[in-house]
Specification:
Blueprint (H helix, E strand, L loop, with lengths): L12 E4 L4 E6 L9 E7 L8 E4 L3 E8 L2 E5 L2 E5 L4 E4 L5 E5 L5 E8 L4 H12 L5 H10 L2 E4 L3 H8 L19
Antiparallel strand pairs: 1-2, 2-3, 3-10, 4-11, 5-8, 5-10, 6-7, 6-9
Helix pairs in contact: 1-2
C-alpha cells in the first residue's frame, strides 16, 4: 500500500510537449495501476494534440485555470474552471487552450499506464525534430491512433498554434482519412 504524501506545485516528472507540458503527479505504480493524474499547463491558444483516440484509456479533464476547448467527434465543448470534461476511449478528440491567458487541466486517466506516454514523448521531443518512425512506434505501444494531418485544419478552425507540427501528413494506423 502506498504511503500518503503531498506533491508540491513543482513536484512530479515534467515533460515539455511544445505549447503544453505534462506534470506526472500520480503514476500507475502509485495507485495499483488503476488511475493516473497528469497536470497539463497550456500556453495561450496552444493546441495540445492532433486529433487522436485511445483504445485502452478514458480521460477526464478537470479545468483548473483558463478556458479549454475540446473537440469530441463532431461536438465542441469549452470548459472553464471547475468543469469536468469526459473523453471516452475509442472517441476521436483533441483539446486546446481556448483563451489568451494560460490554462491548466488535471487529467485523470483510467486505467493507468498512459502517463508514461508523456514521459517518452517529452524525451523524444527534447532531442529536436522527432523521427516519424519512432513516433509511430510510440503511438502503437500505447494503442493510440494519431492523425497529424489534422493539425493544419485545427489550427485554422480554432485559431490556435501547434509548435513544431510536422507537415508530412504522418498518421498512425486507424487515423481518419
Amino acid at each position: 500500500m502506498a504511503a500518503p504524501r503531498i506533491l508540491g506545485p513543482h513536484d512530479g516528472h515534467h515533460a515539455v510537449l511544445g505549447g503544453t507540458s505534462a506534470r506526472l503527479m500520480i503514476e500507475g505504480d502509485d495507485a495499483g495501476r488503476r488511475v493516473a493524474l497528469v497536470e497539463h499547463p497550456m500556453q495561450p491558444r496552444a493546441l495540445a494534440a492532433p486529433m487522436h483516440r485511445h483504445h485502452r484509456e478514458d480521460e477526464y479533464s478537470f479545468v483548473l485555470e483558463g478556458s479549454v476547448g475540446v473537440l469530441l467527434g463532431d461536438a465542441i465543448v469549452i470548459g472553464h474552471p471547475g468543469d469536468l470534461i469526459f473523453k471516452p476511449r475509442e472517441q476521436w478528440h483533441t483539446f486546446w487552450n481556448a483563451g489568451d491567458s494560460p490554462a491548466r487541466i488535471l487529467e485523470i486517466i483510467t486505467p493507468a499506464g498512459f502517463e508514461n506516454y508523456f514521459r517518452e514523448l517529452g524525451a523524444e521531443l527534447a532531442g529536436g525534430t522527432p523521427d516519424p518512425q519512432r513516433l509511430a512506434t510510440l503511438w502503437s505501444r500505447y494503442a493510440l491512433d494519431m492523425d497529424m494531418s489534422s493539425v493544419p485544419g485545427l489550427v485554422q478552425r480554432f485559431g490556435v498554434r501547434f509548435p513544431g507540427a510536422p507537415s508530412s501528413g504522418l498518421h498512425s494506423e486507424g487515423a481518419p482519412p
